[in-house]
Description:
The structure holds 2 protein chains of 2 kinds. By secondary structure, chain A is mostly beta strands. Chain A folds into 2 domains: about 15-65, no CATH class; about 65-145, CATH 2.40.50.840. In chain A, about 5% of the residues lie in helices and about 40% in strands. In chain A, strand 2 (about 35-40) and strand 3 form a beta hairpin. In chain A, about 40% of the residues are buried. The model of chain A has no long low-confidence stretch (mean pLDDT about 95). By secondary structure, chain B is of the alpha+beta class. In chain B, strands 1, 2, 3, 4, 5, 9, 10, 11, 12 and 13 form a 10-stranded mixed sheet that branches. The mean pLDDT of chain B is about 95.
Amino acid sequence: MSGTYLPDGLPRPGTGPDGLSEPYWQGTREGKLRIQKCKGCGSWQWGPEWICHRCHSFDLDWVEIKGKGRIYSYERPHHPVHAALNGHGPYIVVLVELPDYGNVRMVGNLLGDPKQTVTIGASVEAVFEPHDGADPPYTLVQWRLA
Amino acid sequence: MADRTLRGKTAIAGIGETTYYKHGQSPHSEFKLALQAVVKAAEDAGINPKEIDGFASYGNDRSEAGRLASALGIHELRFSNMFWGGGGGGVCGAVGNAAAAVATGMADCVVAFRSLAQGQYQRYGRSGGAPLASGDDAFLFPYGIMSPAQRFAMKVTRFMHEHGIKQEALRAISLACYHHAQNNPNAVMRGRPLDEEKYDSSRWIVEPFFHLYDCCQENDGAAAVIVVSAERAKDLKQKPAYIMACAQGCDERSAAPVHNMPNYPSSHFAQLGPRLYKMAKMTPSDMGIVQCYENFTGGVLMSLVEHGLVKPDQANEFLVKDNLIAPNGGMPLNTSGGNLAECYMHGLELVHESVRQIRGVAINQSKKNDTAIIMGGPMVTPVSSLILGSEATL
Lengths: 146, 394
């Protein structure tokens, strides 16, 4: 039993050959939620890009933020697309909007009963979910009702 | 400068399609299917396949233009073109690109086509099982968002939430497609009718709005259309279906990573729709035949709204089965069965059906058949749409 929301065996996150999202994944291992903030115009940006889409500065900082948001949308997948989910049953994915950071949105699972009623607009907070047994280990950001 | 437009300069002069199969059941290879569709389209147009001098496709089609031209003994290939992006976002764009090549004199006779044999290659509704997800996928796969249904479901949830639209509106779209397929001998779902009860009791793919019957099939087959100049089309065998407008692209930052597109509950046609009508010099109320790519019924709903064909606050009343079926519905939709019930030919079957409707030879023939709008690949990026017209609309 892994203690994670979804079973072991799903694809693990990688930073890709270009390493663009490495500061994010390093941060989650340390219990820190970091997103991009443009040093040129001060805009928050998520997901990661090499350039600020507003002012075209390449000088993007990774800034720690508070994991507080509200549910913007959600889904409850039933069909097991990946073999690791066979027989697992439905689970909840939420799209969380972060009003304090330019309304950027983050994707995660909503912890708790997978059959619970989900309310758009409900307040949620980030929870770090380490996958220490993975090689290499990584930490996901999940969400629970606040 | 002369008026820069595609309006009425080219026409679809021939259509060809293979037998459509359930995924994995084609006895032929994908490339052979492509050749069959092209040869049939040439026959339909009454031309020799060697007259073809260009190919346009989409969805990273594996049947490459150079290989097709060589296999067909084409003397001189003058145009080869691939529309970026996966799925069916490029279906109308490929036809538009073919038209642009002909209109500008780059080529004279261009085929837009799609070939798919998913038994030979990987399916869409299954994850390939790679152990590492990178790029945007790194922020989605570990949370169980892998298939197209899972990637798009939250867009639909939000749209339905914002406008108070009920599941029954999506059900009506599915019922209309299945209804039309029952008369269509080439429809994979012929003989498998759908009613309210069967839809309602079908299993969830993704709650809260994706029942099994809200999701497209996966199929094997190929389809091709032949685009020539308007002048040439008049001298050929079939009644021309003129290309009145094509628009392609996407809304502002619709490919922003991790679901951060500014207009989230969208099929990505919001900016494109008005551009399409402007080129055609038509309005939504001029549209007779309506064909919309169903990857998922929720995508159809948002596409219809973004092309001005349905008002969101009237969707619950407007999207009812009787209103969506030929010949007497107010807006017959996907009259051959579409991706849901004819074949998931990545939407090219919708273009074929539009041409048949304009010719007046469709199985579920609609009365208002001088114009047809086709919308391709809702929710992907980029997307495309097309307006075809009879000679009366020129």
